[in-house]
Amino acid sequence: EAGTLDVMCGASPEDFERVRPIIETFAGRIVHTGPVGSGHTMKLLNNFLAMGYAALYAEALTLGAKAGLTPSVFDAVIRDGRMDSPFYRTFFKWVLERDPNAHRFAMSNAFKDMTYLAGFANSSGTANPMGSAVRNSFALAVNAGKGEDFVPTLSDFVAASNGVSLVPKG
């Protein structure tokens, strides 16, 4: 909303202190993550968590719709409970209000980030089944021509792929 960014910066302590004043001109929150490269790794992990939540919300909403639960019922249970979060709220601005600016991050970028995560997992010799599942969710949407659509619309794609709609009636 305020147009500030979170910055995860990997650098030596000396270099970090030297660049901090510059980063402070545009960042709302700055975290020194450790040596060079650690900021990039942390950004991948942060995006993995965010896109993982997006894929989970899309699938949970679809399962709920199949059982007759509306997105507003889903929201009534999640909002203000333990599973509520700022990410949930921006995602659900699309689901409930159809606000196209709720979470402006293209599914093609989500797919790209999850592909980078897969490469990182591979190079570190780490099994990453959850990352693969999240990447596959976005791959399906991107390959269906939805790459430029924003991440919350994954919920509509997953629902439509399973024969249900999440669009509020009325």
Which properties best describe this structure?
two-stranded parallel sheet, 2 strands, single chain, 170 residues, mainly alpha, N-(1-d-carboxylethyl)-l-norvaline Dehydrogenase, domain 2, 61% helix, 2 domains
Order of strands across the main sheet: 1-2
Number of DSSP E strands = 2
Largest sheet: 2 strands, parallel
Strand proportion, as a percent range, falls in: 5-15%
Helix content: 55-70%
Q: SS-based structural class?
A: mainly alpha
How would you portray this structure in words?
The protein contains seven helices and two strands. The protein has two domains: 1-36, no CATH class; 40-161, N-(1-d-carboxylethyl)-l-norvaline Dehydrogenase, domain 2 (Orthogonal Bundle), CATH 1.10.1040.10. By secondary structure, it is mainly alpha-helical. The model has no long low-confidence stretch (mean pLDDT 96). It is 61% helix and 8% strand. The radius of gyration is 18 Å and the shape is globular.
Q: What is the topology?
A:
Blueprint: E1 5-10, H1 13-23, E2 27-34, H2 38-66, H3 71-78, H4 86-97, H5 107-124, H6 129-146, H7 154-161
Parallel strand pairs: 1-2
Helix pairs in contact: 2-5, 2-6, 2-7, 5-6
